[in-house]
Amino acid sequence: MDMTLLAASSVVVEPKRLNLFERYLSVWVGLCMVAGVALGKWIPDIVQTFRGLEFGKGSHINVPIAVLIWLMIIPMMMRVDFASVRDVGRKPRGLFVTLFVNWIVKPFSMAFLAWLFFRHLFAAWISPAEADQYIAGAIILAAAPCTAMVFVWSYLTDGDTAYTLVQVSVNDLIMLVLFAPIV
Amino acid sequence: MPYTVLWYSVLLFIVIPLTAGALIRRWAIHTHGATWLNEVLLPTLQPVTIIALLATLILIFAFQADNITEKFVHVLLIAVPILLQVYFNSSLAYGLMKALRVPYSIAAPGALIGASNFFELAVATAIALFGPESGAALATVVGVLVEVPVMLSVCAACNRTRGWFQSDAAR
After folding, report:
1. What's the whole-model pTM score?
2. Which chain B residues in 6-35 lie under 8 Å from chain A, judged by CB atoms?
């Protein structure tokens, strides 16, 4: 079993030419963060116009970012060999770990860390009312595992695309059930 | 409202790209063969992924420029437990994967899924429950800001520790 999955993934994964990118990664990331803030300050009108482009009203899904995410993940989806998706069901251990961390550990570890920092360690700078807001926001964040970007992260680490797809899909199905009561 | 975001996201970020990717894959294999797909087309598209990633980062920071400059100290303070959370959860998932002898190609994305956050949904939920100017919304925005840089560092850590899983691959 190990061998079939590994063989399937090694066929589609080729060595990456990311050396220049990887070596100076923190530099590029830092420059992009600074460039972003600078653009937002210098040409706020244009930036706000871009920001206002959403799929449907109040969907919070920004069109320019969605298009960039497509550019990132469509090539990844082109690597999915549907024959290997079926193998995932026979190797569920990885999936159990992700589900355990995402839904049993993550919301509670975030609640604890947020409470510890916002209510206690940072109490000198954050008022208790603000702290409660920040704690709530942090917990909401932790209760929402990622969809699209995970494909990019998986790609950058030579992850098994088919397995990542199944993991993301299962987590999203759980989210659809769990978020229903909030509405 | 958050539920709409969730449905939209599943459609936009899974169903559409998966369909598009599967169709392009079929077309490429039919017309040029699997070798061309894996050795020519996919490597050609590689820089696109990286450029799109950096462009996403620029947009995210441009959209939040006002929050970053006006609430700079609070943004930094909020980032601290969120960063710790990301590193704690990815290490936990990665360690469990290693203990269970899961191969690297599954362990790495597993660690990344355990750490990564679905920021569109989080921001929408916080705004729906507490309003756009609320502290809760600001905290989720910080989650958006840290996502790309912090996840890239987790990717780098996974790539560097690939050797831990080699004994499993040999079996």
Report:
1. 0.82
2. 6-10, 12-14, 16-18, 20-22, 24-25, 28
